[in-house]
Amino acid sequence: MMKKYILATAILVVFIGLLFLAAKYLGSNPDQLNFEYSPDMARTVAFKAQSQNPFFRNGRTEQTPVDGTIPRGFMPLHYGLSEEEAKRAGRELQNPFQSDSTANLERGAWVYQTYCGVCHGVAGDGKGLVVQHGYPAPPSLLLENARKMEDGRMFYIITYGFKNMPAYGSQVDRNDRWYVINFIRQMQENQQ
Fold this sequence. Notes:
Blueprint: H1 2-26, H2 39-42, H3 83-92, H4 102-120, H5 144-148, H6 151-160, H7 174-190
């Protein structure tokens, strides 16, 4: 029984000694780095985009997103590229923003001037700057067919483009597309 106590005491003394040694060698100075067991966790090897990368099976640095993932701040639209899909968007999509909000209309005016006015013109009449330099004229936003167009269909056209109009889904934020529609509606009302 005495041997067990001596053995336990010896193990305890060795353990405490190891703790003192560890404290001495690892240090307790907060201004000094301690021992790192896995430095790769703190400082990973940087790879340039489109360079070879031995850590992935395909050997490429940039990886495709996992199927079904959605980038932060992006809500997908589940519509195809056809006239039927544009009509469906017109029926299904509703403008979530108030058309009488001053802040929304101001933002819509800024977006319109930045992205739309170059083709559709400052007044929405289809006589923008690029049209004056040979680009095919877009239809006037003040005509009856534009006035009757559903907000959802207009959103679809801004997002995916239509005929000569390029797609602006990647350039214009989702909310800004709705704001510009509100601004266009205000322009149409002011022209009556």
